[in-house]
Amino acid sequence: MTPKLRLQPEARGIGMTGQRARDRLVLRLREQGIQDERVLSAIGTLPRHQFIDEALASRAYEDTALPIGLGQTISQPWVVARMTEALIEQGIPKRVLEIGTGSGYQAAVLATLGMEVYTVERIDELLRSARRRLRQLGLDVRSRHDDGRLGWSEHAPFDAIIVTAGGAALEPSLLDQLVEGGTLVAPVGGATSQRLLRMCRTPEGIQQQDLGAVVFVPLLSGVQ
Ligand code: SAH
After folding, report:
1. Which of 54, 55, 99, 145 is deepest in the core (most CB within 10 A)?
2. What is the pLDDT of residues 13-61, one digit of tens each?
3. How do residues 67-83 score in pLDDT, each as one tens digit?
């Protein structure tokens, strides 16, 4: 765990947003098959209630996706945990690119695990709030307001890439920005039948693994 995480008193929360609520969520994730202690520890530490609207804070530690405005959602904790687990199976990647900053929660999990995080979001208003939250937590995340389907070529290649919005097919330019030996995790498929895919770039080509069915908001083009 990085010692950089800065938790103000509001971040620790109380009652429905307090440590016991986070501990119960961790227990539930364990029961649902999440095994990586580093991931469980990050989720047990990060104040998810600060990544959503105050009116929803009491639901922050339920294992469910929640609205964050502008038609978008903060991903379900189990999905965040599963994707992160899949990304760090071969060791913690040094530099990771996230497409779809949203609330900033997934980026915070990655940064807490010690990764150098680059994240791209197409909705400016969401990105501004996410930046503020990450800064408050003392997490150093590089972010950009752009259509992330083309990645972030100036900082490529990355050791890992995580896409947190569902596209009909994987954007080929993203795989081009992955180092050899790197891992990419992304939901791929139509609005009703997305699969979470893990791809590893090897000298022989791309190795693909299907991690199961998921539901994500769509990967859209252009910026807003
Ligand atoms: N990782 C986020 C999940 C947010 S939902 C979190 O932890 O909260 C997915 C996000 O992807 C939304 O904010 C949406 O606006 C964004 N998104 C969709 N298409 C995108 C694109 N082409 N480029 C960048 N961001 C995109």
Report:
1. 99
2. 999 999 999 999 999 999 999 999 999 999 999 999 999 999 999 999 9
3. 999 999 999 999 999 99
Full-model pTM: 0.97
Give 102 Cα–ligand 1 centroid separation in angstroms. 5
Q: What is the pLDDT of residue 2?
A: 56
For residue 6, the CA-to-ligand 1 centroid distance in Å is 25
CA distances from 194 to 161, 197, 204 (A): 18, 9, 26
- For the CA of 123, the closest atom of ligand 1 is 15
